[in-house]
Protein backbone atom coordinates (compact mmCIF):
# COMPACT_ATOMS: atom_id res chain seq x y z
CA UNK A 1 0.00 0.00 0.00
CA UNK A 2 1.47 3.33 -1.04
CA UNK A 3 1.35 6.55 0.91
CA UNK A 4 -1.36 8.60 -0.73
CA UNK A 5 -1.79 11.45 1.76
CA UNK A 6 -5.57 11.29 1.40
CA UNK A 7 -5.35 12.29 -2.26
CA UNK A 8 -8.78 13.01 -3.74
CA UNK A 9 -9.19 12.23 -7.42
CA UNK A 10 -11.75 12.73 -10.18
CA UNK A 11 -11.41 10.36 -13.14
CA UNK A 12 -13.08 10.61 -16.54
CA UNK A 13 -13.20 8.34 -19.56
CA UNK A 14 -15.96 7.51 -22.03
CA UNK A 15 -14.92 3.84 -22.11
CA UNK A 16 -16.81 2.17 -19.19
CA UNK A 17 -14.36 -0.72 -18.76
CA UNK A 18 -11.33 1.57 -18.70
CA UNK A 19 -13.05 3.85 -16.20
CA UNK A 20 -14.01 0.89 -14.01
CA UNK A 21 -10.51 -0.56 -14.13
CA UNK A 22 -8.88 2.74 -13.20
CA UNK A 23 -11.35 3.24 -10.34
CA UNK A 24 -10.64 -0.22 -8.93
CA UNK A 25 -6.87 0.18 -9.19
CA UNK A 26 -6.92 3.58 -7.48
CA UNK A 27 -9.27 2.67 -4.66
CA UNK A 28 -7.54 -0.62 -3.93
CA UNK A 29 -4.30 1.31 -3.52
CA UNK A 30 -5.74 3.78 -1.03
CA UNK A 31 -6.66 6.72 -3.27
CA UNK A 32 -9.99 8.47 -2.73
CA UNK A 33 -11.92 8.66 -6.00
CA UNK A 34 -14.56 11.30 -5.30
CA UNK A 35 -16.10 11.40 -8.77
CA UNK A 36 -16.27 9.60 -12.11
CA UNK A 37 -17.24 11.19 -15.41
CA UNK A 38 -18.11 9.56 -18.71
CA UNK A 39 -17.73 12.73 -20.80
CA UNK A 40 -15.88 16.01 -20.65
CA UNK A 41 -18.80 18.05 -19.41
CA UNK A 42 -19.40 15.69 -16.48
CA UNK A 43 -15.69 15.78 -15.69
CA UNK A 44 -15.63 19.57 -15.64
CA UNK A 45 -18.72 19.79 -13.42
CA UNK A 46 -17.21 17.30 -10.97
CA UNK A 47 -13.91 19.18 -10.85
CA UNK A 48 -15.57 22.55 -10.28
CA UNK A 49 -17.90 21.15 -7.62
CA UNK A 50 -15.60 18.79 -5.74
CA UNK A 51 -12.24 20.55 -6.25
CA UNK A 52 -10.18 17.34 -6.08
CA UNK A 53 -6.44 17.39 -5.62
CA UNK A 54 -6.03 15.56 -8.92
CA UNK A 55 -7.99 14.75 -12.07
CA UNK A 56 -7.06 11.96 -14.49
CA UNK A 57 -8.70 12.65 -17.84
CA UNK A 58 -9.01 10.89 -21.18
CA UNK A 59 -8.40 13.16 -24.18
CA UNK A 60 -11.13 11.89 -26.50
CA UNK A 61 -14.42 12.43 -24.70
CA UNK A 62 -17.82 13.72 -25.87
CA UNK A 63 -18.86 17.37 -25.35
CA UNK A 64 -15.44 18.51 -24.11
CA UNK A 65 -12.15 16.75 -24.72
CA UNK A 66 -9.60 16.38 -21.95
CA UNK A 67 -7.58 19.42 -23.01
CA UNK A 68 -10.72 21.57 -23.10
CA UNK A 69 -11.64 20.42 -19.60
CA UNK A 70 -8.20 21.39 -18.33
CA UNK A 71 -8.26 24.79 -20.03
CA UNK A 72 -11.74 25.66 -18.74
CA UNK A 73 -10.90 24.53 -15.22
CA UNK A 74 -7.68 26.54 -15.20
CA UNK A 75 -9.52 29.60 -16.51
CA UNK A 76 -11.74 29.30 -13.44
CA UNK A 77 -8.64 29.20 -11.20
CA UNK A 78 -9.20 25.64 -10.00
CA UNK A 79 -6.15 24.36 -8.10
CA UNK A 80 -6.68 20.75 -9.21
CA UNK A 81 -3.63 19.14 -10.81
CA UNK A 82 -4.14 17.21 -14.04
CA UNK A 83 -2.94 14.03 -15.70
CA UNK A 84 -3.92 13.18 -19.27
CA UNK A 85 -4.33 9.50 -20.07
CA UNK A 86 -4.68 8.55 -23.72
CA UNK A 87 -4.02 6.12 -26.55
CA UNK A 88 -2.41 9.00 -28.49
CA UNK A 89 1.35 8.92 -28.94
CA UNK A 90 1.41 11.50 -31.75
CA UNK A 91 3.68 14.52 -31.44
CA UNK A 92 0.92 17.12 -31.76
CA UNK A 93 -0.92 15.72 -28.72
CA UNK A 94 2.25 15.70 -26.63
CA UNK A 95 3.11 19.20 -27.84
CA UNK A 96 -0.35 20.44 -26.90
CA UNK A 97 -0.01 18.94 -23.42
CA UNK A 98 3.35 20.63 -22.95
CA UNK A 99 2.08 23.96 -24.29
CA UNK A 100 -0.69 23.84 -21.66
CA UNK A 101 1.97 23.13 -19.03
CA UNK A 102 0.40 19.78 -18.15
CA UNK A 103 2.77 17.87 -15.95
CA UNK A 104 1.35 14.37 -16.45
CA UNK A 105 0.77 12.44 -19.67
CA UNK A 106 0.20 8.70 -19.57
CA UNK A 107 -0.67 6.13 -22.18
CA UNK A 108 -3.51 3.71 -21.53
CA UNK A 109 -1.10 0.84 -22.03
CA UNK A 110 0.91 1.95 -18.97
CA UNK A 111 0.87 -0.20 -15.84
CA UNK A 112 -0.57 1.01 -12.55
CA UNK A 113 2.98 1.21 -11.22
CA UNK A 114 3.66 3.91 -13.78
CA UNK A 115 0.32 5.61 -13.09
CA UNK A 116 1.26 5.82 -9.42
CA UNK A 117 4.70 7.23 -10.24
CA UNK A 118 3.00 9.88 -12.34
CA UNK A 119 0.51 10.74 -9.58
CA UNK A 120 3.29 11.18 -7.02
CA UNK A 121 5.33 13.33 -9.39
CA UNK A 122 2.43 15.59 -10.38
CA UNK A 123 1.32 16.06 -6.77
CA UNK A 124 4.92 17.13 -6.09
CA UNK A 125 4.77 19.66 -8.96
CA UNK A 126 7.10 17.55 -11.08
CA UNK A 127 6.55 16.45 -14.68
CA UNK A 128 6.02 12.83 -15.62
CA UNK A 129 5.40 11.66 -19.17
CA UNK A 130 4.99 7.99 -20.02
CA UNK A 131 8.26 6.10 -20.25
CA UNK A 132 6.99 4.77 -23.60
CA UNK A 133 8.07 8.13 -25.00
CA UNK A 134 11.77 8.32 -25.82
CA UNK A 135 13.60 11.10 -24.02
CA UNK A 136 14.82 12.52 -27.33
CA UNK A 137 11.24 12.79 -28.54
CA UNK A 138 10.20 14.75 -25.44
CA UNK A 139 13.27 16.97 -25.62
CA UNK A 140 12.42 17.81 -29.23
CA UNK A 141 8.88 18.78 -28.19
CA UNK A 142 10.28 21.07 -25.51
CA UNK A 143 12.69 22.61 -28.00
CA UNK A 144 9.87 23.37 -30.45
CA UNK A 145 7.85 25.05 -27.71
CA UNK A 146 10.82 27.22 -26.79
CA UNK A 147 11.08 28.24 -30.44
CA UNK A 148 7.39 29.18 -30.49
CA UNK A 149 8.03 31.52 -27.57
CA UNK A 150 10.37 33.50 -29.84
CA UNK A 151 7.44 34.60 -32.02
CA UNK A 152 6.02 38.08 -31.68
CA UNK A 153 2.29 38.61 -31.03
CA UNK A 154 1.83 39.55 -34.71
CA UNK A 155 3.61 36.39 -35.86
CA UNK A 156 1.47 34.25 -33.54
CA UNK A 157 -1.70 35.86 -34.96
CA UNK A 158 -0.57 35.06 -38.47
CA UNK A 159 0.56 31.54 -37.54
CA UNK A 160 -2.88 30.77 -36.10
CA UNK A 161 -4.50 31.78 -39.36
CA UNK A 162 -2.00 29.75 -41.38
CA UNK A 163 -2.92 26.75 -39.22
CA UNK A 164 -6.54 27.28 -40.26
CA UNK A 165 -5.39 27.13 -43.90
CA UNK A 166 -6.30 30.76 -44.57
CA UNK A 167 -4.47 32.08 -47.64
CA UNK A 168 -1.80 34.77 -47.47
CA UNK A 169 -3.98 37.23 -49.36
CA UNK A 170 -6.95 36.57 -47.07
CA UNK A 171 -4.77 37.05 -43.97
CA UNK A 172 -3.48 40.32 -45.41
CA UNK A 173 -7.02 41.54 -46.15
CA UNK A 174 -8.23 40.56 -42.69
CA UNK A 175 -5.38 42.34 -40.91
CA UNK A 176 -5.37 45.33 -43.24
CA UNK A 177 -1.75 44.95 -44.27
CA UNK A 178 0.03 44.06 -47.49
CA UNK A 179 0.69 40.57 -48.85
CA UNK A 180 4.37 41.45 -48.86
CA UNK A 181 4.25 42.13 -45.10
CA UNK A 182 2.58 38.76 -44.50
CA UNK A 183 5.24 37.06 -46.60
CA UNK A 184 7.94 38.78 -44.52
CA UNK A 185 6.29 37.53 -41.34
CA UNK A 186 6.09 34.02 -42.79
CA UNK A 187 9.82 34.14 -43.56
CA UNK A 188 10.60 35.28 -40.01
CA UNK A 189 8.45 32.51 -38.53
CA UNK A 190 10.18 29.89 -40.69
CA UNK A 191 13.59 31.12 -39.49
CA UNK A 192 12.58 31.18 -35.81
CA UNK A 193 11.12 27.68 -35.99
CA UNK A 194 14.14 26.37 -37.93
CA UNK A 195 11.92 25.02 -40.70
CA UNK A 196 13.09 24.28 -44.21
CA UNK A 197 12.64 27.30 -46.46
CA UNK A 198 10.54 25.36 -48.95
CA UNK A 199 7.13 25.92 -50.49
CA UNK A 200 4.34 25.08 -48.01
CA UNK A 201 6.77 23.96 -45.27
CA UNK A 202 5.27 26.44 -42.81
CA UNK A 203 1.69 25.63 -43.77
CA UNK A 204 2.31 21.89 -43.41
CA UNK A 205 3.96 22.38 -40.00
CA UNK A 206 1.18 24.69 -38.80
CA UNK A 207 -1.58 22.27 -39.83
CA UNK A 208 0.23 19.37 -38.14
CA UNK A 209 0.59 21.38 -34.92
CA UNK A 210 -2.72 23.21 -35.13
CA UNK A 211 -3.98 22.08 -31.73
CA UNK A 212 -0.87 23.46 -30.05
CA UNK A 213 -0.88 26.72 -31.99
CA UNK A 214 -4.45 27.62 -31.03
CA UNK A 215 -3.47 27.49 -27.35
CA UNK A 216 -0.79 30.16 -27.77
From TrEMBL:
- Residue list for modification 4-aspartylphosphate: 58
Q: Name one GO molecular function term.
A: DNA binding
Keywords linked to the UniProt accession: DNA-binding, Phosphoprotein, Transcription, Transcription regulation
Which InterPro entries does UniProt cross-reference here? CheY-like_superfamily, NreC/VraR/RcsB-like_REC, Sig_transdc_resp-reg_C-effctor, Sig_transdc_resp-reg_receiver, Tscrpt_reg_LuxR_C, WalR-like
Q: Does this entry carry the keyword Ribonucleoprotein?
A: no
Chain ranges of the Response regulatory domain: 8-123
Question: Which BP terms in the Gene Ontology apply to this protein?
Answer: phosphorelay signal transduction system; regulation of DNA-templated transcription
Q: Which domain of life is it from?
A: Bacteria
Quote the PROSITE patterns the UniProt record gives. HTH_LUXR_2 (PS50043), RESPONSE_REGULATORY (PS50110)
Q: Name one Pfam family in it.
A: GerE
Where is the HTH luxR-type domain positioned along the sequence?
144-210
PANTHER family on file:
NITRATE_NITRITE RESPONSE REGULATOR PROTEIN NARP (PTHR43214:SF41), TWO-COMPONENT RESPONSE REGULATOR (PTHR43214)
Name of the protein in question:
Two component transcriptional regulator, LuxR family
Q: Which organism is it from?
A: Lutibacter flavus
